[in-house]
Amino acid sequence: MSKFKKLTDFLKSLKCRLILLCILIGIVPSVLLRAGMLGSYENRAVSIRTSEILSQAKILANQIVSNDYLNNAESESAINVQLEQLSTIYDGRVMIIDEEFHIIKDTYNLDTGKTIISEEVIKSIQGEEISKYDSQNRYIEMTIPLVHVDPETENKRTIGVIMVSVSTDSINLNLEYLARNTLVMELIAIVAIIFAGTFIAIHLVAPFHAMAKSIEEIQTGYGDDALKINAYTETRQICEKFNKMLGRMKVLDDSRQEFVSNVSHELKTPLTSMKVLADSINSMEDAPVELYQEFMSDIGNEVDRETKIINDLLSLVKMDKSAGDLNITNVNINELLEQILKRLKPIAEKQNIELVLESFRPVSADVDEVKITLAFTNLIENAVKYNRPDGWVHVSLNADHQYFYLKVEDCGIGIPEESLEHIYERFYRVDKSHSREIGGTGLGLAITRSAVLMHRGAIKVFSTVGEGTIFNVRIPLNYIS
User: Fold this and answer.
1) Is 452 exposed, middle or buried (0-12, 13-18, 19+ CB in 10 A)?
2) CATH of the domain at 151
3) Where in the numbering of this chain does the Histidine kinase domain appear (predicted)?
4) Cα–Cα distance between 422 and 420 in angstroms, integer?
5) Model pTM?
6) Angle, nearest 10°, between helix axes 77-89 and 14-66?
């Protein structure tokens, strides 16, 4: 089974295909060239032989007509000698036929005096000159009309036909000799092409084998931190893409480890506080009721904090699932924002913050109402919580033919420039002390960004420390899965 798998892998490999390509490119032209050469030689040899015989036959035809050979065949010994010579030289047969289809002369002395009726003879009696090559029986046959011209009237009349049949055995012998020689040369070329193709294929795929080995070494931890195979432009581009992917994977791995560490820390802190409070109560004898109530209140606050962290983590996990989990419906975004601001208004009033919604036009979009509500709520709630007393939060909604745009602007504490690229990371806090005071978990913006991206949208932030922050969100009106 392993041998079969190795054979299958080899047949599917680039090396095998390169070898086959080299063989195909080398062998097919040589086979076609050989066939073309043999065919060209045969056609050329037959053409030359036909031209030679035709010229000799025409000379004889003129002599036969001028010497009235048809009526004096026995007495014209000179013409008979020429006919015999033509037959001998070209290894053929010559027949002289009169206009009544009687064979006057046959150099083979087989059919003299007999009658011959054939399509070629009939056409030649009618004045047509015919020449044909029978490749299967290996002979050339031609019929030339014997034309008599009346010296007084200059009228032309066909008085007979000279038929010449010539064997092409000599041409075929030369053709077979040439075929054998070219076949030997072709086999030598094929062997050379196979070796050359194999050599070229091995050297061409060598960088890819080196790349695979390097990737394996990187996976096992014994190789370099980056892939560097610059033999070809393609290998260099693959290495660049791989190194980018590897860097991204390392970032994700570091982020995952940091996330686990942060989760552990965030969940451990409330538990530690509750343990300390519980131990303190248990260690006190005859503690006053007021102290019990205070400690239990603190434990309740820590439980609430733990619950909020867990709820945010569950929300984030849901956001991390595929977009197929979205429950897309057509939602009135104007009404959605009005409901969000209505729920957040008591929080804003505690800090005396003015909360304003400005809608430039009615907007309806295909969104997951639960997830988009959570995203918008996080943005607006952050703008309220991280604001200054007597401040303001301005929420505006607009749209065009393709997207709707949400802008959340505040005059709060702002975000330092070096922190802007980290604000979407899980558990990241710009001001840790202030975040803990207001009960932040560091997951809100991560949840918001995930929800926006799931809707094929985009989010951007602009902020100045001490002046405020602006979040711009763009989401398609029509969701395309």
Assistant:
1) buried
2) 3.30.450.20
3) 262-479
4) 5
5) 0.45
6) 170
Band (223; pLDDT cuts 50, 70, 90) = low
How many domains, the chain? 3
Picking from 302, 283, 56, the residue whose alpha carbon sits closest to that of residue 162 is 56
Residues 281 and 295: beta-carbon distance below 8 Å: yes
Residue 427 identity (one-letter amino acid): F
Q: Comparing C-alpha atoms, which of 261, 268, 311, 300 is closest to residue 444? A: 311
Q: Is the pLDDT of residue 154 over 80?
A: no
Alpha helices in 351-429 (DSSP H): 369-385
DSSP state of 140: E
Query: Which of 174, 208, 239 is at the close of a domain?
Result: 174
The residue range of the domain holding 456 is 321-476
Q: Is the same domain home to 75 and 145?
A: yes
> 301 and 365, same structural domain?
no
Query: Rounded to an integer, what is the distance from CA 141 to the centroid of its chain?
Result: 59
* Tokens encoding 480: 């395309």
Q: Final residue of a domain: which of 280, 298, 317?
A: 317
Amino acid at 421: E
- How many Å apart are CA 104 and CA 69, to the nearest integer? 9
Q: Of the candidates 480, 477, 481, which has an alpha carbon nearest to the alpha carbon of residue 402?
A: 477
Flag the least confident range among 116-125, 317-326, 357-366.
317-326
Domain contains 223: no
For CA atoms 385, 261, 300, 437, the dihedral sign is: negative
Task: Report pLDDT digits (tens) over 2-50.
Answer: 677 666 766 667 777 777 887 787 778 878 888 888 888 888 988 898 8
pLDDT tens track for 76-91: 678 888 888 888 888 8
- HEC string of 9-67? HHHHCHHHHHHHHHHHHHHHHHHHHHHHHHHHHHHHHHHHHHHHHHHHHHHHHHHHHHC
Spatial CA neighbour of 160 closest among 97, 71, 80, 72: 97
The span from the CA of 5 to the CA of 12, in Å, is 10
User: Among candidates 108, 110, 57, 53, which has minimal Cα distance to 79?
Assistant: 57
Residue 397 in any domain: the answer is yes
Quote the Cα angle for 154-159-164, to 5°: 125
